[in-house]
Design brief:
11 helices; elongated; alpha/beta; Rossmann fold; 2 domains; 12 strands
Amino acid sequence: MSPLTIYVTEPQVINLSIVRAALGGTPYTLVSGSPDFLAGDAAACNVVLIRSGTHITSTILATMPHLQHVVRVGVGLDNVDLDFCRQHRIAVYNAPGANADAVAEYALTMILVALRQLHHLTRADQEAWNRFKFSGHGIASRTVGIVGFGHIGKLLYAKLRSLGCHSFMVYDPYATDTPADARMASLDELLAGSDVVSLHLPLMPETTHIINAQKLALMKDGAILLNAARGGIVDETAVLARQKSKPLTYIADTVEGEPHVNPALLNSPGTVITPHIASLTDDAEAAMVRVAIENLLAGKQAQVIATP
């Protein structure tokens, strides 16, 4: 590998100390930049280090003509034009699994919050000591459907099982090591049979709006749908329409067009929106930087498999 000149587009959220430690004795130069790719700073760089706020498109070669490597601090690659990179022999790296535990913990937390209806808690409830408004469900009595059984899906399963949940359905055509007590199902079967559905799959053409009006119509009244993956996986207009006709709790850590949020979602009493925080623990942040750099140095390029 030739000496690395690394353009960091989001230095305010990428810990450069961890980057330097991960690079170790490798010859390198770090250039702190921005997602705008200022030509004077980026022109000599052959590596770009990004997070979710940067989009890699065909225009990048105008400011980075020597680009050879795109390193994504994180897992999702929907902000990288993979076809363009392949055509121009630009290698792409990410950090699969590095934030899996943090995201699984978030999913577990929000599932329990929704089951106990704590997302409806208000100051008035506290002042009136309104106990019986919050008569919810225990996790052990629920069937949980996990869509996408990769790093995060497997960890969520293990965490739920340790809390006494014993009824699982899994949809993932590529999964080969599903636990014996988790029933493999079609997506339609999973949606119809689950009390809780947690989505853990990448955003790609094959998965865009995989949860649409037709799929939402299959879900049980009062079901919980959790999206800690990517906003475009779920048709938000269809969610709002479903909520008007039948009860559905929708918890989303990411939305279509983020950071802009559909006001109708924010105003829906059946919806909880968090600002893409599922992976934001100190441990996960450090691991994502470290693993992404380690994969760059090892030449271990990103592998992308959709769940159609």
